[in-house]
Amino acid sequence: MHPLSGRTLVFLPGLDGTGISFEPFGAVLPEDITVRIVRYPADRLLDFEDTVRCARDQIPRDRDAVVLAESFSGPVALALAGSGLIRPGCLVLCSTFARSPRPLALKALELLPLKRLLGLPVPRSFLRLVVAGGAESADLLLGLWRRVRTMVQPEVLVHRLKIINRVDVRGFLPGLSVPCLYLQAASDRTVPESALFDFMEAIPDLRVKRIPGPHFILQARPRESLAAIQHFAGLVGRSSGGRSPVPEPG
User: Fold this and answer.
1) What is the pTM of this model?
2) Would you say residue 31 has pLDDT above 90?
């Protein structure tokens, strides 16, 4: 029996909000894990507070659940757990942030015709440069992105980018009462290493696992990510188990 056996894994997706990005990671999960995928509307502009409520309504009230929040959804999960609206067994934060990770770059993006640009084909060479994950990762992400573009309106993606640049949930960090794991992608060109500092300063019960790979670490390195989560779940145990504030090496 593995540490996640019989537990519910709740996935909060990245910018696309569709849950498509979960598929590579979901493919390596053991069969005895129950999966719940939170999804955000693909055709409506929700502000941050509405996004938090949307996620809350989809998360089961399971005190043994493992909540996995990727990138855009990190602040959403932090607002939920830090305010006590959800009380999972543990929280896994993947390639994410508590406030805008690149405020100047995102502000500059707002000056571009993003809705039109998002409708254009993405050059494979550009994607390889951005994700820093090599040809295999670029091909995988390109396939996922093509599906996202058919499902999510460009203005929704632009709106979420603006949310990222305005979000600041650092005030919720001291209120976290569940064990937390931060999965850091070693070659992340989207979220800088400094984004981790906010978490390390405010969360006493934090573990950190650094995995070689790009921002989209769950997609590019699903088995390594799963191993890190299983190890974390084994350390903190079930909801009645003990917790340790000592950061995990590596």
Assistant:
1) 0.86
2) yes
